[in-house]
């Protein structure tokens, strides 16, 4: 059972379903209007017939969680999008003072809430398209400091460079956008 917690527009969920059509997947997004984009992605790729798609704040467990733990959670967290600046330079023009503080707080709220739905031995993959340490390495370090049953499970070097098991790719590396991810495993 897999949760894609911030699923719109649905590309990552569709890829998971392409790899395993029998996957029990729940795709959530806080914006009900964006659910249509997830469904369109599923229709375009021919997957998702068995997936559940729901509008909910992933951090508000009472609003959507049935109490059954997930083996894996994908949290592609809302972020500053500084990793896509090569393709979308206007990202930097739209940032205001306080945006990063608000995003870091939201990311922490999502991490803390979603950790509760991960089964013992399960995995939470935290990802952003940010290159800011506050949203990435520092966010994961703070999460690990306050979460006794969490550990980082290292990812292969092919997924970027990094420290403490996390991986960062900068804009232009490997011909892509800037991207960060950490694979967190819940103790049994």
TrEMBL record:
InterPro entries: MeTrfase_RsmB-F_NOP2_cat, MeTrfase_RsmB-F_NOP2_dom, RCMT, RsmB/NOL1/NOP2-like_CS, SAM-dependent_MTases_sf. S-adenosyl-L-methionine binds at residues 6-12, 29, 57, 76. Specifically methylates the cytosine at position 967 (m5C967) of 16S rRNA. The active site is at residue 129. CDD domains: AdoMet_MTases. Belongs to the class I-like SAM-binding methyltransferase superfamily. RsmB/NOP family. Keywords: Cytoplasm, Methyltransferase, RNA-binding, rRNA processing, S-adenosyl-L-methionine, Transferase. It is found in: Cytoplasm. It catalyses: cytidine(967) in 16S rRNA + S-adenosyl-L-methionine = 5-methylcytidine(967) in 16S rRNA + S-adenosyl-L-homocysteine + H(+). It is an enzyme of class 2 (transferase). SUPFAM superfamilies: S-adenosyl-L-methionine-dependent methyltransferases. This is 16S rRNA (cytosine(967)-C(5))-methyltransferase. Residues 1-187 form the SAM-dependent MTase RsmB/NOP-type domain. It comes from Stenotrophomonas nitritireducens.
């Amino acid at each position: 059972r897999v949760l894609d917690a911030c699923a719109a527009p649905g590309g990552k969920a569709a890829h998971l379903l392409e790899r395993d059509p029998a996957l029990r997947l729940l795709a959530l997004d806080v914006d009900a209007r964006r659910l249509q984009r997830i469904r369109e992605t599923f229709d375009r790729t021919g997957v998702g017939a068995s997936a559940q798609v729901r509008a909910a704040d992933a951090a508000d467990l009472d609003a959507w969680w049935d109490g059954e733990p997930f083996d894996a959670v994908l949290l592609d967290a809302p972020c500053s999008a500084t990793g896509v600046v090569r393709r979308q330079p206007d990202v930097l023009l739209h940032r205001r003072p306080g945006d990063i503080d608000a995003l870091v707080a939201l990311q922490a709220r999502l991490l803390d809430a979603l950790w509760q739905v991960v089964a013992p031995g399960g995995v939470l993959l935290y990802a952003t398209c940010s290159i800011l340490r506050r949203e990435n390495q520092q966010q994961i370090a703070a999460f690990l400091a306050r979460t006794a049953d969490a550990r980082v499970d290292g990812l292969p070097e092919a997924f970027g460079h990094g420290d403490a098991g996390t991986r960062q790719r900068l804009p232009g590396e490997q011909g892509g956008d800037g991207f960060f991810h950490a694979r967190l495993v819940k103790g049994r």
